[in-house]
Design a protein that fits this description.
Chain lengths: 379, 232
Amino acid sequence: MFAIALKMLFHDRAKYLGLILGVAFSTLLINQQLGIFIGLITRAGAVIVDVPQADIWVMDPGVKNLDTIFPLRDTELGRVRGVPGVAWAVPLYKSNVTIRTGNGELEASLLIGVDDSTLIGLPPEVVMGNIDDLRRPDAVAVSVDGFRKVWRNEPLSLGNIAELNDRRAVVVAIVKDSPKFTSSITFFTRYSQALQYTNNGRNQMSFIVAKSAPGATPQEVSRSVVARTGLQAMSAEDFRYKAIMYVVQNTGIPISIGTVVGLGILVGIAVVGLMFNLFVLENLKQFAVLKAIGTSNMRLIGMVFLQAAVVGFVGFSVGLFGATMFFETAGKSPTFQGFYLPWYVAAGSGAIAAAIIVLAALLAMRRVLFVDPAIVFRG
Amino acid sequence: MNRQIAVECTGVVKDFGTGSVKQRVLQGIDWQVPIGATTFLVGPSGCGKTTLISIIAGLLTATSGTVRILDQEITKMRPGRVVKFRADCLGFIFQQFNLLPSLSAVENAAVSLVVQGSTLASAKRQAAALLDQLGMDKNKHKYPNQLSGGQQQRVAIARALVHNPKIVISDEPTASLDAQAGREVMELLRQVASADDRAVIVVTHDNRIFPFADHIATMSDGRIESFRRNAT
């Protein structure tokens, strides 16, 4: 009977395609929008991800995210280092600077100052150059996407000279960093050099990044830092979560994307539900014939569910393929770096597609169950 | 088991609606359909022929009375058992053919076996042999919309007989066909369906095909008015 069910489904090609497109469109919209949402909010914690060596972040008690910073006094670094359970602690500087690009245009960029001696704070992946060269005067490392934006149409190379706040900066390394929320251009340099680029003098530490000693958890050590210094301290993971939640709670992004996702689900339910209902309605006499010649209700239900499942599976696959291709293609653009389709979004959209299909099948099933087989005798 | 009687209706009453809109369509039918013969059920439109065969087929339930088919009381069977009984013991031929448009002729003919649990592939082998017998060897793989009315009815006959049912119920089998095609279909039905252990019930008001009947039951106003052996 299942072979017959499939033949019935594939026979009406227009409706079959319509059903597939309904599920596919819904799946594509949900995956594309949620992928963008995850990509966007993940950017809120990108600076933290780029310092994988540190598991504790220390900052002014009023700091809520990575973009609104109040500088710490230089002496705080020593106090943090003195807290039991802190294996090491180094300063991290973060500021926005203006850069003049190769063709004279101005661009906003992010400047990260990393510890002079250990260079902790640099992203681990070096694409070109040697990070030890950062110890040279005026030396900076630039992100891959930043390089492509500043020196458009030029191949990646070292030795390029830029102006950061009107001061000379020589590119000695190119690194792969996490895409940021505000700018795609990020320069990394030594902490002391960063202060020169921004002319801010002493007491300019944005953060202190630290590592918990073996045997202590970042959460425990963070609590000790708070107790002993009065500063705000939390594990890298907690700070990342806090930064992400700040974006979620203080921007229109969740509502805007949530609306589109909701529409995707509604369109899926409406289009697939109505079209599947129509498909069953148009084939109702065929179901009645099958019922009349001895097909049980259970088998008819099985046929309807099989038809729905095939529509769901094919539609979901097409939609997921479309979403994957979108991220694959768009991801090649420098401004779209870091957006991807997380597995849990794909899995979640699969569950939504399944729910849409089950709902559509349940609606249609009623008709099949209650169709009077005696209609086959009516001309 | 009564080996002479295929269907036995006793006092079958059928009402539609309730209260003031209640309409009694069958007024207490007593009727016996013999095995090994083709029995026509004739009468004017609205006299209750289709309702009666729907009850015999287990597609409708009688308001009162009993229907015994092949010595089993179908009116007392549980719904699931009726469905199985229909699949195993009955074959249907409809006025509008009611072929599935998504299936080829051979697949349509195979449906009754598939309903019984055969795989489509093995059912198609049996159905193809029967279609050959019905002169459809060249059209087996065509779809219903590529077949004439007469050819479609041959496919419907094959579907009704492929699982070798003991009772074949045929509702106006020639109503959608011209005279020539109607006669051919009846000749085929008589050739292929007639068997000593099978009863064929044909509902019709096409008097051109009356010569194909062994017995004719005439209905009027929800009653069997006469039941006679056909002399023509």
